[in-house]
Amino acid sequence: xxxxxxxxxxxxxxxxxxxxxxxxxxxxxxxxxxxxxxxxxxxxxxxxxxxxxxxxxxxxxxxxxxxxxxxxxxxxxxxxxxxxxxxxxxxxxxxxxxxxxxxxxxxxxxxxxxxxxxxxxxxxxxxxxxxxx
Length: 133
Fold this sequence. Notes:
Elements: H1 10-21, E1 27-32, E2 35-41, E3 46-51, H2 53-56, H3 69-92, E4 96-101, H4 110-126
Parallel strand pairs: 3-4
Antiparallel strand pairs: 1-2, 2-3
């Protein structure tokens, strides 16, 4: 598992490139409220996570290991539970949390960028939290 990339994955690089091309500026891998966030818009308090389809249980693309299930199934379940805890912690601290599946970023579509632009601009316009799902 040491070889599994946690930063600068293909999905993350694709999203970052599209965000930059659209004129949005962000911070990477920042610790916010004790949670490391993949892409952060600090001023607008928008936190974006790019979740791998296997590791986080994508309903469209998740596969389940056929061997050593007693190890893998609890591990994958804990990943989902941790995602929920982290998202809730950030929301309670006033952050807008957007969780994207890796397949939503490969390639990154205008719809995905529009969703992020909307969250960032709404937050700045209203100076208050929104909850994007």
